[in-house]
Amino acid sequence: MTRSGENPRPAAETALVTLSIDGREVTVPEGETILAACTAADVETPTICWAPNLTPVNVCRVCVVELEGSRTLVPACSRPAEAGMQISTDSERVRHSRRMVLEFLGSANDLSQASEIADWSRTYGADPARYEGSADGGGDLPLRPEPERVDEPVRIQDDLYIRAYDRCVLCYKCVEACGDDAQHTFAIAVAGRGFDARIRTEYDAELPDSACVYCGNCVAVCPTGALQFRTEFDLRAVGEWRPDDQAVTRTVCSYCGVGCNLELHVQDERIVKVTSPADHSVTSGHLCIKGRFGWQYVHAPAFEPPTTSVTEH
Asked: Which residue spans of the chain are classified as CATH 3.10.20.740?
């Protein structure tokens, strides 16, 4: 508190740090990451496990950059920017590392619905086919076995969303959204080791029997379609999923007074899924079950009064 007549103490100014990104000096607030500095420098950096509304977990390693003086490449999504850093984002070492990560993912998983990963794979010339087996080794080369691939049937346990483990790249986004970053339900975690690691409910329980509250925040952050709205899954199955034909309209959820913003994805005059903007101050991209899935009433059939027969007397 201040005494009458005194001016309040000015707020402390945010400290700034200056570093070099690909030879260009960039200044960002202290505590920001290298990724934020790259964004400030208009340098596109691939990410898979990072999202603006989640805590970085450093598992995909596709955002790595070269830091002068560092023995290893460093993850841009979580490494704080420091004054005087000399960062290279497009060196041959960085490109080679990113290409290898993308090839490994593509050799083990179905990435046909991961459009951003496909774009980055083209950018870095990733070719997962290099790891395909060979029948003759080619000259003096040994025979190569076929790479192991995730091959499990799609899990459909309700009418809200599906799980397709052959598309899961273990980015941990769903785990973070279910945990401290959003829902605090902790219904899912990584179970198993090595190639057998999967995102599971506790004791691999069926979703309706698990701690899942069906907020759908895990679906919203999934980058590959491993978690997918049932409406989208069904439309894709019949070749009718057309995102380019969808209109997105922002509105306010009608269920309570919190003020969550909804993005209604509409195709053929029907809502096909609901998301929320990650930069919204109320939701940060996260919703509850009502906001995410409770829109079917919009398409309720029109009421038709029962017909009555007139009896003549």
From this structure: 16-90
| Angle separating helix axes 115-123 and 92-108, nearest 10 degrees | 140
Closest to 222 (Cα-Cα) out of 298, 273, 280, 159: 273
pTM reported for the whole predicted model: 0.86
Beta bridge partners of 271: 266
CA atoms of 71 and 73, how far apart (whole Å): 7
Q: How far is CA 206 from CA 68, 203, 217, 224, in A?
A: 49, 9, 18, 22
Q: Which of the residues in the chain have pLDDT under 50?
A: 1-5, 313
CATH T-level fold of 161-299: N-terminal domain of TfIIb (2.20.25)
Percentage above 70 pLDDT, the chain: 90
Residues constituting the chain: 313
Instruction: Give the pair of three-digit tokens for residue 200.
Output: 């599971």
d(CA 109, CA 151): 8
And the tokens for 133? 């087996």
Burial 168-204 (b: 16+ CB within 10 A, else e): bbbbbbbbbbbbebbbebebbeeeeeeeeebbbbeee
DSSP for 255-285?
SSSS--EEEEEEETTEEEEEE--TT-TTTTT
What is the Cα–Cα distance from 3 to 234, expressed in whole angstroms?
67
Q: What is the pLDDT of residue 9?
A: 52
The CATH 2.20.25.90 domain(s) of the chain lie at: 161-299
Q: Helix, strand or coil for residue 304?
A: coil
Domain 16-90 = CATH 3.30.70.20: no
pLDDT for residue 4? 44
